[in-house]
Specification:
Strand 2 and strand 3 form a beta hairpin. The chain has one helix at about 1-25, and strands spanning about 40-50, 60-75, 75-85, 95-105, 110-125, 125-145, 145-160, 165-180. About 10% of the residues lie in helices and about 65% in strands. Strands 1-2-3-4-5-6-7-8 form an eight-stranded antiparallel β-barrel. It is built from one helix and eight strands. The protein starts with a helix and ends with a strand.
């Protein structure tokens, strides 16, 4: 329970810091523009949520991933999402490798889709390998000249090797930067 409380506290502090800046964005729009999306990008994503089991309830989940990629165009980033998912009831973490695409709709608002493989998913005490991906979105906020912080939300669906569908809802944030080509 302490990890969940820490996550909620961190998210609340971030919202208290970011919301006044969002409210003032219309007074100085250049100050609130996102970093130029050119060249390579790298970000670290920290998400928390729940794996849904239907009538059996849910299992709390935490996911940390490393996402190297590149801006294919000003509004489209393509890359890999490599990370670990931990189910709070299980002692073994799952590794995943996904390919992702992030499409920017306006300013910092984006839609994100990914697909790939997970070493295992955990539901009701059973671990099995799984294929699938996620759909989500978020808002990217600038940090310095090339950096960014993004609020993320995702709906992850994986099909296990025994054909059981594992659905996970995740929310969190990521921190990263763009490195321009020379």
């Amino acid at each position: 329970m302490h990890a969940r409380s820490a996550f909620v506290t961190l998210l609340t502090l971030f919202a208290a810091w970011a919301l006044p800046k969002i409210a003032r964005a219309d007074k100085n729009p250049e100050r609130f523009e996102t970093a130029s999306r050119e060249g390579l990008t790298l970000d670290v994503r920290m998400l928390s949520g729940a794996a849904l089991h239907g009538p059996d309830g849910f299992t709390p989940v935490t996911r940390i991933s490393y996402s190297p990629g590149g801006a294919v165009a000003e509004r489209f980033v393509l890359g890999a999402d490599l990370g670990v998912t931990a189910w709070w009831e299980d002692k073994k973490g799952s590794f995943h490798g996904d390919t992702f695409g992030k499409l920017f709709i306006t300013k910092g608002l984006f839609a994100r889709a990914s697909g790939g493989i997970a070493s295992h998913t955990y539901v009701a005490g059973v671990r099995k390998a799984a294929l699938g991906g996620s759909l989500g979105g978020g808002w990217e906020l600038p940090l310095g000249k090339n950096g960014f912080m993004a609020l993320n939300g995702e709906y992850d669906v994986r099909v296990r090797s025994d054909w059981f569908l594992v659905r996970t809802v995740l929310v969190g944030f990521s921190i990263g930067a763009y490195k321009k080509r020379r």
